[in-house]
Design goal:
The structure holds 2 protein chains of 2 kinds. Chain A contains 14 helices and 13 strands. Chain A has helices at about 5-25, 50-70, 90-105, 115-120, 120-125, 160-170, 185-200, 220-225, 240-250, 265-275, 280, 300-310, 320-335, 345-350; strands spanning about 35-45, 80-85, 110, 130-135, 150-155, 180-185, 205-210, 230-235, 255-260, 285-290, 375-380, 385-395, 405. Chain A is of the alpha/beta class. In chain A, helix 2 (about 50-70) crosses helix 13 and helix 6 (about 160-170) crosses helix 7. Chain A has 2 domains: about 35-155 and about 295-375, Response regulator (Rossmann fold), CATH 3.40.50; about 160-290, Rossmann fold. By secondary structure, chain B is mainly α. Chain B has one domain (about 10-220). In chain B, about 75% of the residues lie in helices and about 0% in strands. Chain B has a two-stranded antiparallel sheet with strand order 1-2. In chain B, helix 9 (about 220-235) runs parallel beside helix 11 (about 265-280). The termini of chain B are far apart. At the A-B interface, helix 2, strand 7, helix 8, helix 9 and helix 10 of A face helix 1 and helix 10 of B.
Chain lengths: ~425, ~290
């Protein structure tokens, strides 16, 4: 083949590349956006063993979006929320997220749920520059702006929660014997790391773990009882919090329980324990939270109304508040992203750091931080009511100090429908 | 020492339930030479029946009775309505049908009752009795243990000393010869399914109050562990199911107590591999004698 004939395809290729580059320079509508709709999606367990704990979250988010859409949407666009069931199986997550991106052509993935599940798609989403917003997991790995520029966390990290709870425990019950029961994965190890940061290397008299595949914690609770544990931290999902407390009660073992927000939702725990014994077992139960949850809070009142009207009056729990708060934050980001939102403009809206969300501490989003909440408040159950006790701490997911926070929670504005 | 006693006691109570469930698998294996992968899902259906009956009547015992009856009916329906159509040429056919049945039953329960866990109560004190300062078995654990032993004794008597038991054993072992001798093989196979389903339902009903609660997936891990127990003990052997159940239950408790809960699934699988390597037919199998 001659030199000349080979150069023709090369020329054509160069011309095509040049044309492609020039096309990039003019802003193009992002996938999933039309004049009157914006389509986003999520992966979450709706069936299988994990559905019990989490299927109510996406329903709550959808109810909030329905409420927004009935009130004119955001910048005239209604939000379409495509919920894909992954059964909490990472292999399925990979399939459904590809469906969302390639077939449904979603604008963004919102609130993808779970550490093992979302870990399996975070690289894919970032390689394809799909906004990966407000991951429903407390793993600190979502806050890596350099490695994952398109991924933003939502939950306060397990480390932040543990540091705040340990600080509260030290103030409230000094000189007691502290122990921990944690899930045998990232959740348990990250949480325990956070505890040790505050309590010191030998601060825990007993470190117990459980595996979700074995619904029995008698041996672990027995070990804590034998070790003389008085204040027990829990890095447990709601079901295992209930199982731990129930098991301890059967063994006539009294201790102070201090739980991460992932396993500290009072209405959900009542579902596991039963309405008759739950108030007794949970009296004095300490947990952390970063979202509005006081019974008379204006956000809670609004969310209850939305839940009644748009979610068929489903049981109102921490999951409901969580799902709707995620929806609110997305709506806020969308409103700030301008009349014609693009994937880049949503990213900019988040990184500029002016979004408020609706938490009890300000959001931490910036160019250097993709963590949402770097602080939590302490809640206590008293006579069947779980409420904040006024102590709020902020800290980072590293070795930074735990600082009391005295600011006010974010107030409700404009019926909970954000405007630019 | 206190710790060891405590862990042994805990393991014994869990082992009894595993043994009972494994026994259900053994019954079907003995009666029809299939492994019933739908055993767990069928048992959870009966447990929902018990839950609803107890909620309606306020009586645990009526609920228990309802679970046993519905377990029997379900065993009958599954054998006559589904498993009978499995191809006799390949054991896989029955396995696939059973797995399909699991999906149908669990989805139906999810649609009907939702995915949430429901607490189940028992009319026993379930707090552990302290022996020398060590929390040992609770009255409920004792009830479970006694029930398991009684069921096993009754079944042993049935199979060993009654004509019906002899017919069932013969029908499973040599169906053609049994037919020639006048045994109604089709009936005894169905009866095996009914018995097995009743025992499986009882195991699930005893287990659920000690776990997270009632949910369409409440018996998933019970099935996996019960299957392990049945294989360890020998699929053919009720005594194997009992011993296997106690061995696995105690091993799980000791591993959790001394090594950590994360190692439990690995330890159980390790035990399974070990037994399959050393005695492929299970600890108490009588296979060698039969082949002779």
């Amino acid at each position: 083949m001659s030199q000349r004939s080979r150069s023709i395809p090369a020329l054509v290729a160069t011309a095509l590349v040049a044309a492609g580059l020039s096309a990039c320079s003019t802003p193009e509508a992002s996938p999933g956006v039309t004049d009157d709709t914006i389509t986003i999606g999520t992966h979450t367990p709706l069936t299988g063993p994990a559905a019990a704990g989490y299927s109510s979250i996406s329903a709550a988010t959808k109810a909030y979006f329905d409420y927004v859409n009935d009130n004119g949407g955001i910048n005239g666009r209604s939000i379409e929320y495509v919920v894909k069931d992954d059964g909490y199986n990472p292999a399925t997550t990979q399939t459904v997220v590809r469906e969302l991106v390639q077939e449904e052509e979603v604008f963004a993935v919102l609130n993808g749920l779970g550490t093992p599940t979302h870990s399996s798609v975070v690289d894919y989403l970032n390689e394809n520059e799909v906004p990966d917003l407000f991951v429903a997991s407390g793993s600190p790995q979502w806050d890596q702006p350099e490695k994952y520029p398109w991924t933003f966390a939502y939950n306060a990290s397990y480390i932040v929660e543990a540091k705040a709870l340990a600080t509260y425990a030290q103030e409230t019950w000094p000189d007691k014997t502290y122990c921990v029961l944690g899930q045998d994965d990232d959740f348990g190890t990250d949480f325990t790391t956070g505890l040790l940061t505050v309590l010191g290397g030998d601060g825990l008299a007993s470190t117990q773990t459980y595996s979700v595949s074995v619904q029995d914690v008698v041996a672990q609770i027995g070990a804590m009882q034998a070790a003389g544990c008085e204040v027990n931290f829990l890095a447990t999902v709601n079901g295992f919090t209930a199982l731990a407390l129930g098991t301890a009660a059967k063994m006539k073992y009294r201790a102070q329980w201090v739980s991460s927000s992932s396993g500290g939702d009072y209405p959900t725990l009542v579902g596991y324990l039963g309405e008759d014994v739950a108030p007794l077992l949970l009296q004095g139960f300490v947990s952390s939270n970063y979202l509005p949850f006081s019974p008379d809070d204006e956000w809670v009142t609004l969310f209850q109304q939305i839940n009644d009207e748009y979610n068929g009056g489903a049981q109102f729990s921490g999951n409901t508040v969580f799902g709707m708060s995620v929806g609110y934050l997305f709506a806020q980001a969308l409103a700030q992203a301008g009349e014609d939102p693009t994937r880049e403009s949503v990213l900019d809206a988040l990184e500029v750091g002016t979004l408020t969300g609706n938490g009890i501490v300000p959001l931490s989003f910036s160019k250097d931080s993709h963590a949402a909440f770097e602080g939590v408040g302490i809640t206590v159950v008293d006579k069947g009511v779980q409420d904040y006790v006024g102590e709020v701490f902020t800290t980072d997911a590293g070795s930074g100090d735990v600082v009391p926070f005295t600011g006010e929670p974010v107030a409700l504005e404009g019926d909970g429908i954000p405007t630019a | 020492m206190d710790r060891l006693v405590f862990l042994l006691g805990t393991g014994l109570a869990r082992g009894a339930v595993l043994a009972l469930f494994a026994l259900a698998l053994v019954l079907i294996w003995r009666g029809a030479r299939v492994i019933n992968f739908a055993q767990g899902a069928m048992a959870v259906v009966s447990t929902y029946v018990a839950f609803e009956v107890t909620a309606l009547t306020g009586s645990y015992w009526l609920g228990l009775l309802a679970a046993l009856v519905s377990g029997g009916v379900l065993g009958f329906a599954v054998e006559r309505g589904v498993m009978r159509f499995a191809s006799p040429r390949s054991p896989l056919s029955g396995v696939i049908l059973a797995i399909g049945l699991v999906m149908v039953l669990q989805s139906a329960l999810g649609i009907a009752f939702g995915p949430d866990y429901r607490p189940m109560r028992v009319p026993f004190d379930d707090s552990a009795v302290l022996v020398g300062g060590v929390p040992l078995l609770s009255p409920y654990d004792l009830f479970v243990l006694v029930t398991a032993v009684v069921v096993m004794v009754v079944l042993a008597v049935l199979f060993r000393w009654t004509s019906l038991g002899l017919q069932m054993r013969a029908a499973a072992f040599a169906p053609e010869v049994s037919r020639l001798l006048g045994v109604r093989v089709s009936r005894t196979v169905t009866l095996g399914w009914v018995l097995s389903s009743v025992v499986g339902s009882l195991a699930a009903l005893l287990l659920v109050p000690t776990s997270l609660g009632l949910n369409p997936h409440a018996t998933d891990s019970l099935f996996v562990l019960g299957f392990t127990v049945a294989v360890v003990g020998g699929l053919d052997s009720p005594v194997g199911a009992l011993v296997g159940g106690v061995v696995v239950g105690v091993a799980m408790s000791l591993v959790t107590g001394y090594l950590g809960a994360g190692l439990v699934p690995i330890a159980v699988l390790g035990l399974l591999v070990l037994v399959l390597l050393l005695r492929p037919a299970g600890l108490f199998a009588a296979a060698a004698a039969r082949h002779a």
